[in-house]
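Example 3.
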Amino acid sequence: MSQRHPSALSLERHLADPVGSPVRDHIALCARCSEQLEEMRRQGEEFLRTVYPATVEAVEAAAARRWLPSWLRVPVLAPVTAAAAAAAVLLLLSPAGDGLPPDWGGGVKGFGGVGLAVFGNGGGGARLLGDGEVVRADAALRFRVSLPSPCHLWIVSVDAQGKVSRLFPSEGDGGALAAGRVELPGGAVLDGRPGPERVLAVCTPGPLLYAPLERAVQVATAQGAGAVRALAKLPWLPEGSGQASVLLEKR
Amino acid sequence: MADGRSRAAELYREYGPAVYRRCLRLLRDPEAARDAVQEVFMKLVRDMERLEDRPSVLPWIYRVATNHCLNLRRNAARRGEEGGEAALELAEGRPEADAYPERALAQALLERFDAATQAVAVGVLVDGMEQTELAEALGISRRTVARRLERFLEESRRFLREGAR
């Protein structure tokens, strides 16, 4: 047994991973270190029993205030440029509500009261596509969203290769100011490559620049096709954001 | 952001005990440690991605908590509050600690040094860390650790021999 006792940090590492601990043998033979570990465990239990319940709310609030990771934070908080402000268009206003309006008309109900409907061109005209539905790899799409209150809207899509496509708005930055039930002008044509493609509608209380949004989508789907299919909710959006997404399987 | 909040709560449950232990060790007062652990974690969650990085998270937590608690001690000592003067027990079995003439590291002595040197002295003499391990935890070179420790030991011996002037 080494005459030198492990440091406080080594003992912390041992507590976190006793199996892979390089000081495991020393501790097994050292009464002093074993006692110290017992005391550390007792202090940890004391923290969980008395300190954690009384303080966790403040920590959660601090995390919420932070609201964006460093790689997503800077551009969002920057002043909106004149060009971006000019590009922001109030599309349609309707009374705010907590959920989707009664005349929503179908589509995917997402988070924060946001709904997204994707329509594909079929033989008899536009058809509402279901989540996970198989579509032609070069299908033409249109979109409709339902938003509970005025917000800055982005529609983007991502494929298995991590390619993020900007669908709406096509110009400007910060997202288009929108509210209510909105039939989006224009549309999109799929790229013809088979595989999953997820369409996301993101609705933020303040302007969200495209670059950090694109990065957030790329990070969330970095594991490829499985991640695109599994993505239930895009993380790291500002507090008060809503979102909805529809998965399409291109064949 | 609900996701960020709940993840922060999970990470606080996982790593809060380590921060709490660190604060108890340096502040030697459960009430002060209870306040400090919350303040430290509010700093840590500003960089949540780093908290998720398991291999490097403990040294980082150690550094942030150490700096925060030493700062609290300095402030308390300057205000003449109880706790600010509490001595820190030296680690056993460390040659560097043996070279230090007292069995406890006094706040009055620590205060004579800048924050970076204080962190080195506490890391080696109180926490019993190897210089390499401490260098990694503090994000500085081992040579810097050695230099600061040498300076600390030299000046503290002189201070203890001659007394404060």
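DSSP finds nine helices and two strands in chain B. The mean pLDDT of chain B is 84.
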